[in-house]
Amino acid sequence: MGDEDPIARAKLLTMVCASVLATCEEALGVYWGDAALVNSSKIFQAFTNDSLGDDGLPLYLWIDFRAGLAEDGRTAGFTVGLKALGHREFETESSTDEPGDLRERFFALANYVLENGPVIKDGNTVGGDENEKIRVALADSAFGNPKRVLRLEYESVKKKKRRD
């Protein structure tokens, strides 16, 4: 598919995979190598139809949003799959969000850069509203990614109370 836009290439490949799944009952699902994700045929087709049919992007098929509790009680996580779409991966070791909320934050950030280009830079702040400011740092990965990542630094943010 040459030097085409990586998002256009991913859309085309997604549509081809969904078409094969729709016509081949023996196909159990799709392994999306750039994100190390496996989705069943039913889920892959549903996300493709719902997302691409509305001119959206099926990010849950293309990007893995990983998050979990760290030993210190904070949440850590990272994305896998943005690099193949032409962007830096996101990660954090210091989130005060619950794991599900951090995955949603990563989703929103990924969607934002895929729609607007690489506009989140080293030293910027991001947040859910004007009162939440999470600093972004271009840094080496703490999770083994060989490329530099956009790390979310929560140190300056007030801690949210965790639910027990």
What is the N-to-C order of secondary-structure elements (H for helix, E for strand)? HEEHHEEEHEEE
Strand content: 15-25%
The general outline is globular
Task: Give the structural class.
Answer: alpha+beta
Lateral strand order in the biggest sheet: 3-4-5-8-7-6
If helices are DSSP runs of H or I spanning 4 or more residues, what is the number of helices? 4
Which whole number gives the mean pLDDT?
Answer: 91
State the helicity in percent bands: 25-40%
Q: What oligomeric state do the depicted chains represent? A: single chain
Give structural notes:
The strands form 2 sheets. The protein has a 6-stranded mixed β-sheet with strand order 3-4-5-8-7-6. The model has no long low-confidence stretch (mean pLDDT 91). The protein has 2 domains: 6-61, no CATH class; 64-153, no CATH class. Helix content is 32%, strand content 24%. It has 164 residues and is α+β, with helices and mostly antiparallel strands. It is built from 4 helices and 8 strands.
Quick rundown:
This protein has helices spanning about 5-25, 40-55, 60, 100-115; strands at about 30, 35-40, 65-70, 75-80, 90-95, 125, 135-140, 150-155.
What topology emerges from the helices and strands here?
Elements: H1 6-23, E1 29-32, E2 37-40, H2 41-53, H3 59-62, E3 64-69, E4 75-80, E5 90-95, H4 99-116, E6 125-126, E7 134-139, E8 149-153
Parallel strand pairs: 5-8
Antiparallel strand pairs: 1-2, 3-4, 4-5, 6-7, 7-8
Helix pairs in contact: 1-2
